[in-house]
Amino acid sequence: MQVTQVVLRHRMVSSCLLLAACASGGGGQKMAAPTSADYGAPSGGYVATQPAPYSPPAHASIQTGAPQPIAEVAPAPERPGLGTTFGESVYAPISFAPFVRSAPSPWAEVLLHYNDEGGVRAHAEYLNAYPSPLEVPAGDGSLSVALVDETGRTLPGYAAGGRSLVIGNDGERYKIVVRNATTARFEIVASVDGLDVIDGKPADPNRRGYIVDPHDTLVIDGFRTSDANVAAFRFGRVADSYAAQTSGDRNVGVVGLAVFSERGAVWTRGELNVRDTADPFPQRNYATPPR
């Protein structure tokens, strides 16, 4: 059964936010009531026994003589490189629009790794690849994705070993930009550092997402805090990242996008290429006699 979902439209860039219906299971786990066996009593009933002599545990024994020094636990080393902080409030209003996905799985997925310049170069060397100019197409290239600075300039980066590595600077604000070169709409479910950009929870492609209209550009400014505002994306220390301060820093340094096509015709470059190269005479052999 097809389910029509409600989305939120980003007025500033003609994009929308999909509100998917959510359901949660009720009830919790139950523990069995304790039985006599749990207390070590015989099945026949209660039996009185003499208490055993008390013997203090080894860690509770009294130390005599000079006081012993207490070993200090060394703090965990701070992770190098950049994460994304929960920045200042930015006005970015949204509105609602319907959107029905053509399939439950994404039409395309995009993954971008970001770090400071030293981290990006080290990552490229780790992948045994030479840096080259960065281009991040989505799917068949009908959509493109980039990280841009506050002025709209595309951040520099490299394509290395199948990875897209973007260079950022500590304290710099950035935005996620999706450009749509087709006549169709797409839904974009985006995550930063493993967190959904709309509710800040661990990301899932089945969550609500933004819509990018035909021949339009979607700009995702930050973590959404209300219908009208977001907390700007800003590069910062891993320890100061929004992820590290909420769910953990395991997935810091990555931006992900799941791209969903809309039900109905999708005139992507791939589909148009198939149309353009259609062969009116696919079989050019002579007729064969019937069997």
What would your notes on this structure say?
The chain has 291 residues and is mainly beta. The strands form two sheets. Strands 1, 2, 4, 5, 8, 9, 11, 12, 13 and 17 form a ten-stranded mixed sheet that branches. Strands 3, 6, 7, 10, 14, 15 and 16 form a seven-stranded antiparallel sheet that branches. The radius of gyration is 29 Å and the shape is globular. The chain has two helices and 17 strands. It has one domain (14-19, 78-275). It has helices spanning 117-126, 269-276, and strands spanning 5-10, 15-19, 82-91, 94-99, 108-115, 137-138, 143-149, 157-160, 163-167, 173-180, 186-192, 195-196, 210-212, 217-220, 222-224, 229-237, 254-261.
Compile the SSE list and pairings.
Layout (H helix, E strand, L loop, with lengths): L4 E6 L4 E5 L62 E10 L2 E6 L8 E8 L1 H10 L10 E2 L4 E7 L7 E4 L2 E5 L5 E8 L5 E7 L2 E2 L13 E3 L4 E4 L1 E3 L4 E9 L16 E8 L7 H8 L15
Parallel strand pairs: 5-9
Antiparallel strand pairs: 1-2, 1-4, 2-13, 3-16, 5-17, 6-7, 7-10, 8-9, 10-14, 10-16, 11-12, 11-13, 11-17, 15-16
